[in-house]
Design a protein that fits this description.
The complex is a heterodimer of chains A (about 200) and B (about 180).
Chain A (H helix, E strand, L loop, with lengths): L1 H9 L9 H14 L5 H12 L5 H13 L4 H44 L3 H29 L3 H16 L4 H30 L2
Chain B lengths: L2 H16 L9 H11 L5 H13 L7 H39 L4 H30 L3 H16 L4 H16 L1
Helix pairs in contact in B: 1-4, 6-7
The chains are: A mainly alpha (about 200), B mainly alpha (about 180).
Chain lengths: ~200, ~180
Amino acid sequence: MTEAVAEEVEAEKPPPHATAWEIAVTFNEISLSSFGGGLSAWSREMVVARRKWMDDAEFLSAMTICRILPGANQVNVAVFVGTKLAGARGAFAALAGLIAMPTLLLVGIAALYAAFQHSHALHHVLDGFAAAAVAMTLQMVWKTGRTTLTSIVPIILFAATFVFNGLLRWPLWWTLLATAPFGIAWAWNRAHRKALAVKAHAP
Amino acid sequence: MTLTLALQLCSVFGITSLLAFGGGNAVIPQFELLTVTVHHWLTAQQFTDSFAIAQAAPGPSTLIVSLLGFRAGGVWGALIATAAMVIPTGIIVWGVAKLWDRGHGEKVWRHALQDGMAPIAVGLILAGGVVVAQHAESNWVQLAMTVIATGILCVSKTNPLIVAVSCGVVGYVLGA
């Protein structure tokens, strides 16, 4: 048992790296794929599942930090990931990749929308996109939940957060004040025990 | 584009972005107040339309600021408003991300913060999904599509883009 734990701790990979161009292209792809919503799910799909730039725990904590900071969450996540991969250049590349094309598209769409805004067909198509965006979000809950909700404490933290924020509609700050101290204390205790186990096992 | 208008755009979007705790949608009411009531850059109806377009279009929905800036001052207005919205907060995130990365040696603390926040993030994502569904899903067709699409995405490796386009087509066929 301790051997397995030691292996897990020692197997920490070197930090990944990517060029500014790769970062910009990836965030452009994320952005253009996410019409009708689902942007955070697309970000995870590309950053964690396809590019393997971060693991789930790292990506989720970056997301939470970005929610606490002011500004648009998905823009913040892009800047955070870009900074981690390639510093200030990476941050700028991610930001430009995420917003350059959509900004141009939006201005074009705005002109067209005036002509089509009363079309029922358009609204039905948009309803379909909205349904898919919710499905992507739920799929993200499923995928990240499978890797992070592995024992009773995280499951309780997850459920409490959902009830406070999603059902009772508490503001983010209240929700985090009620849950984060328990989460961090639990994880600190666990990480501390792991570190001790590694030390005890070392020659 | 006059200098006065450029400065107004910078202050409206730059200052508001720094108050956007809880994401870009949290400051939508503030944008409406400033752009419609205070500065008269667009009408209330145009604001509502801009919101719908930004939600459906590719990219972050916070890019509604590009549309608001466009109404105020054309292409330059759109660029200034967008830059004012993302650059100040981007600099803050960049600074925090650097600090976060510097903690790389402190493995215990890093793991504690990361692993402790992860289940909370999953809860917040589910909460966000449910809240969006309550706003955006108005009929059983949409609900059924969401359930089926979620199932497909969870059990198979289908490209989400294919699922999204299929939902758009089904929405068109069943709704028309």
